[in-house]
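pasting for ref
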Amino acid sequence: MTSERNTLLLMIEKIITFGQMIKFSHTIFALPFVLSSVVLAAKQDYTIQNRDIFWIILAMVGARSAAMGFNRIVDASFDAKNPRTSKRAIPTGEITRVQSIVFVVLFSFLFLISSAQLAMICFYCGIPVLMLLFGYSYSKRFTYLCHIYLGVVISLAPVGAWVAITKSLDWPIFILSLALLTHISGFDILYACQDYSFDQQEGLYSIPAQYGISASLFISSLIHVICFLSFVAIYFIFDMNFIYFLTLIIIGIALLIEHLIVKPDNLSKVPVAFFHINSAISLVFFAGIAGDILICQM
């Protein structure tokens, strides 16, 4: 009995380690946008079934987990050198490369199987989408626009959810996609400021390494202006109501705070801006979309 208990504890510990390796909690950045896409499809009178939501969430988890696992494998040598990332699971040996590869393969299959359950068009697009996601891991080796690349590939998620529900590709959903693209790209630039010196030393490309921290903070703020304007455009394009209007005010204040607390000479607040504020923006956005539609239909 003790042996079985120890085995169970080891399994739980390994699962937690894998979750920490891929920063599973960061799924919260994009998942609310994916669910918002589903809610907006419902607003356009498309039928939503519980199974659709189930498979969309599994597809999202599968794609992101596979992509993050792949990134950890590809970047392991750099992570080992970087003081900020040297304690990650692969550099420390908590998780082996072979275990990581198995992890990536399993979650890639989860993504593809989930996509097939939604629609064959989603399945057919699944493999190129995975390749694009994996490609991000190499982008820092050749372009300082890697942050934009990351935003573009993640912004495919709400488009995929829309196609899964509507079986069509309509232009309004690309406004939601643009909001996510600029949301992700803007805060990824802020996050990359922490590795400014390391990226320059290792010859890696990033906007901070290319232009410096002050200019990067300014570029990030401009991208988030586009992000906020995209949120505003959703109000008009999808004919939203007062609940979503209140949401816009909250998001605008949150974005402003994010850029006020991060200073060129003091990056200590970057983790707060990166996780707490940005996850709050994603959740508030989804709550605003869902609340606006539900309350105004009562």
